[in-house]
Design brief:
Length: 544
């Protein structure tokens, strides 16, 4: 040892104390570099990490007093952590360009030994902290998914939480497409998430093949990696693409890109993110199953209510109507007979309303309706907000089974037009929609008739404020008339108002099936007007 060993030993002990008491890895590395420079008097000290991906640091340098000549003496001392080389201490630039001594090297080796222990402890502490954060994040995601209602909200929750945990610039969820690729369906980013949603990974991409095989994909630079094909890749650098798999099924991919030039993901971060993705996938499946059970419970409850209405209410109403009809046929005063007739009509209308309610309850809570009845009910329900009143909907005959799909599509288009026109008329407080099949034409050909009646104020001369009736008819077989807006006719419905029709049964029936599908300009004939008035007389209920 050279002269004055006590001061250097004191500085060594102080350096060891600084290095040994710190728990944050960056702080530990900074203390190591500063302590090495102070012990040796080097103008420059640096710790070069052997594996930057392991610690997240490539090199730590100490601020020196000035530039160091390239020919200055250099001292290197390795640092090992549990028999693995972590990095190397490099010192240069002693005062007066003097070379480093054996004593300098011995002091540095003592410091490097303690540094290895402190780095290992800091790693363990950082690993524990990161694991705790990811575990808490996964638990929070699971809790949120099992309490939220919508699937879109669930995906957004996963993307947002993963982005924050990983320190990423964006959290992205991709779903498989029908073409065999993957498309971004949800993006969480402080920049422009809308610019990312919709970007796709083409089928056959190497990245896609790895993800479909259940393997995570780790990318050092998304902008330059040839495996990346999306147009948003140029915005990002290091990235993780983690498959969301549950029960052997791939339900999506979680992508966590960082900005270009950002810090690479460490091995620990990759491991924790992969575990998070697995738990998030399981939580997504559980949340979807919960929503399915809730939908099933609602559907079962609706089915029970509909069954009770059909078995109890409709039967009683029908029996009451039969009793009133039998009373009406007995000899008595005309005013009593008229009163009973109105009561029977009200009961018939109530039976139709209850049946419509039963059909509405039997529709699945989610998804497109099945059958013409359900589609008509969906249209009238969606028009209620525009009309300011819920339309009353009635069905007569086997609407679901007898009306072909092509005819049903045209009928729905005519219904939408009629409801839109009704919403534009002032004073509408009541709208009735009736679909009837079979509705024979004057020539006896079976068809389907749509009638939309409202009590609004019509436009044009001669309108007496009695409301508007729009009628649409089409044959069940043969060419279907093109749906057009209603046309005024000189006929008046009962109580005044205006009748609109498109096209008349006579017109629709007289067209050849092989004619081109061109728009017709319908008109109302006296025979049609009589036929429509005859149809206004409701049939007696045949039974519940």
């Amino acid at each position: 040892m050279t002269a004055q060993p006590a001061p250097r030993l004191t500085r060594l002990l102080e350096a060891l104390l600084d290095v040994g008491t710190a728990l944050d890895l960056r702080t530990v590395l900074r203390h190591i570099v500063d302590g090495a420079a102070e012990l040796t008097g080097a103008g420059r000290a640096a710790l070069v990490v052997a594996d930057p991906g392991e610690s997240g640091f490539a090199e730590i340098r100490s601020p020196g007093p000035g530039p160091v000549p390239e020919t200055a003496p250099l001292l290197r001392v390795p640092i090992h952590v549990r028999d693995e080389e972590f990095g190397e201490l490099r010192l240069a630039g002693r005062p007066g360009a003097a070379p480093f001594t054996v004593e300098d090297e011995q002091l540095l080796r003592v410091l490097a030994t303690q540094a290895g222990v402190s780095i290992g402890n800091a790693r363990l502490y950082e690993t524990a902290r990161q694991r705790e954060r990811w575990i808490e994040g996964a638990a929070a995601v699971t809790t949120a998914l099992l309490t939220e209602e919508g699937a879109d909200d669930a995906l957004t929750t996963v993307a947002e939480r993963a982005r924050l945990l990983a320190g990423a610039s964006a959290g992205v969820i991709l779903h498989p497409t029908a073409e065999g690729g993957m498309a971004i369906v949800t993006a969480s980013t402080p920049d422009d998430p809308d610019g990312m949603v919709g970007a796709t990974i083409a089928p056959g991409s190497p990245v896609l093949e790895q993800l479909l095989g259940g393997e995570p994909v780790f990318i050092d630079d998304s902008a330059t990696d040839p495996r990346m094909t999306t147009h948003v890749r140029i915005r990002f650098g290091p990235s993780m693409m983690l498959p969301l798999r549950a029960g052997g099924r791939l339900i999506g991919t979680l992508a966590l890109p960082r900005r270009r030039g950002g810090r690479p993901y460490t091995d620990l971060e990759r491991l924790l993110a992969t575990q998070f993705a697995s738990q998030a996938a399981l939580a997504l499946v559980l949340a979807d199953a919960r929503r399915g059970r809730e939908r099933l419970a609602v559907y079962e409850d609706r089915d029970r209510i509909a069954r009770d209405l059909h078995d109890l209410v409709v039967q009683r109403l029908f029996a009451t109507g039969m009793m009133l009809e039998s009373t009406q046929r007995r000899p008595g005063a005309d005013d009593v007979r008229d009163l009973l007739g109105r009561a029977v009509d009200e009961l018939r209308s109530t039976v139709r309303e209850v049946r419509t309610a039963i059909l509405t309850l039997q529709q699945p809570p989610a998804g497109p309706p099945t059958g013409l009845r359900g589609r008509v009910l969906r249209e009238t329900a969606s028009a209620a907000a525009r009309l300011g009143v819920a339309p009353s909907t009635h069905f007569r005959g086997a609407v679901d089974t007898r009306v072909p799909d092509r005819v049903a599509d045209r009928l729905l288009s005519a219904l939408r037009d009629a409801l839109a026109d009704a919403s534009a008329r002032p004073g509408v407080s009541r709208v009735e929609v009736t679909v009837e099949v079979p509705a024979p034409s004057p020539r006896g050909r079976d068809g389907v008739r749509l009638r939309v009646v409202d009590d609004g104020e019509g436009e044009g001369e001669g309108h007496d404020g009695g409301g508007t009736t729009v009628t649409w008819w089409a044959p069940l077989q043969g060419r279907v008339p093109v749906s057009r807006a209603g046309y005024p006719s000189p006929d008046r419905p009962a109580g005044g108002g205006t009748t609109m029709s498109e096209p008349t049964p006579s017109q629709a029936e007289g067209e050849r099936d092989d004619e081109p599908d061109t728009p017709d300009v319908p008109h109302t004939t006296p025979s049609q007007a009589e036929g429509e008035r005859e149809d206004d007389v409701e049939e007696k209920p045949e039974g519940p």
